[in-house]
Write a structure and sequence with these properties.
single chain; alpha/beta; Nucleotidyltransferase, domain 5; 2 domains; seven-stranded mixed sheet; six-stranded mixed sheet
């Protein structure tokens, strides 16, 4: 049997997938607040090894986004220091995904940090391209959303770095879990009045989508903004605080009305970014990420076809109920690694 572990090392989360003979055996997401120190990454890697079992000489494929955190003075330092930890902790052959440069050895990755930095989106798009999956990949994650066109089996990105992709609209800093509500909108309507949102971290997008019922109560591995319970009522209390109200004043109905407005505004932001990236509005959407329900909603509003990433890429899983949407980059780099070795 051939086993590959794909790793997606972000600034807040560590995600991995275990593939054996091309079939996803397991996925795992762990909170990894990398900005607090490299020891957090070491701990997360250790936890992953304890919770998932794979052969000692398993091959590994790694993609990074964590070099952006303010622990590091610049991306080059971030890439190199993260790789130092990964190489020391992971046993077995290891490759690093370098975007258009493909899979690199750790030494080559250290020499080409700009290729390696924040390249996880490109891995997902490349797998889609190899699968003949023309369309626009829209991956709505916990913190960011990626919008990447794939045409004629090619990844047709305009930007490559975070800055270039922000300018092009291919990177949108809004997700369905960690995004502060104050970044989702400037105001909401309460009755007949438009009320500005308080510029404080009182609530996050996870509170919004708990109230709409589109994520589970345990979907977010992070503590809530106030350290309170990740319940529907707890989310309502936090969200109402964004407009200076207590739960007793507006209740669950008022909080849910706010959540629906914020959801609509996030969809509008995604639609504007999609227009910027793919103005002809003809290609199908390919949905990925923990917030792919928004992609399906967006496609419905625009009258466009929408398929799920794992279906287009023919990704097989040991368990049909396994969460694959949230692990597209980790699965993609593992599958790309397998294809290189076939």
């Amino acid at each position: 049997m051939s086993t590959v572990v794909g790793w997606d090392i972000g600034g807040a989360n560590l995600k991995l997938s275990v593939l054996t003979d091309g079939v996803v055996q397991a996925t795992l997401q762990l909170a990894c607040p990398l900005w607090r120190g490299l020891d957090r990454l070491e701990q997360a890697l250790g936890q992953a090894r304890q919770r998932l079992d794979w052969p000692t000489k398993t091959r590994h494929a790694v993609t990074l986004t964590g070099e952006l955190v303010d622990l590091f003075p610049d991306r080059t330092t971030g890439v190199q220091q993260i790789l130092d930890v990964v190489v020391a902790r992971l046993l077995g052959p290891l490759t690093v995904y370098g975007g258009p440069s493909g899979l690199l050895s750790p030494a080559a990755a250290r020499e080409n940090p700009t290729s390696v930095a924040s390249a996880n989106w490109h891995g997902s798009a490349r797998l889609l391209a190899l699968a003949g999956g023309d369309g626009v990949l829209v991956d709505v994650g916990s913190t960011t959303s990626d919008i990447i066109p794939v045409r004629d089996a090619e990844v047709c990105h305009q930007g490559l770095s975070d800055h270039e992709r922000l300018v092009s609209g291919e990177l949108v800093y809004a997700g369905v879990l960690r995004t502060p509500v104050m970044a989702m909108a400037r105001s909401v309507r309460m009755g007949r009045r438009q009320v500005p949102l308080i510029a404080e971290l009182f609530a996050t997008a996870a509170d919004v989508y708990r109230l709409t019922g589109e994520i589970g109560l345990d979907a977010d591995p992070w503590s809530t903004a106030d350290g309170g319970p990740a319940t529907v009522e707890g989310s309502a209390r936090r969200l109402l605080r964004m407009v200076g109200l207590d739960f007793q004043q507006a209740g669950l109905d008022g909080a849910r009305a706010m959540a629906r407005q914020l959801r609509r505004q996030q969809l509008q932001g995604l639609s504007r970014a999609l227009d910027k990236v793919d103005g002809n509005r003809s290609a199908r959407l390919v949905a990925a990420g923990s917030g792919r329900f928004l992609v399906h909603q967006l496609a419905q509003q625009l009258g466009r076809r929408c398929d799920d990433f794992e279906q287009v890429c023919a990704i097989e899983a040991l368990d049909r109920e396994m969460d694959l949407a949230n692990f597209a980059p980790a699965i993609a780099v593992a599958m790309l690694r397998e294809q290189v070795c076939e």
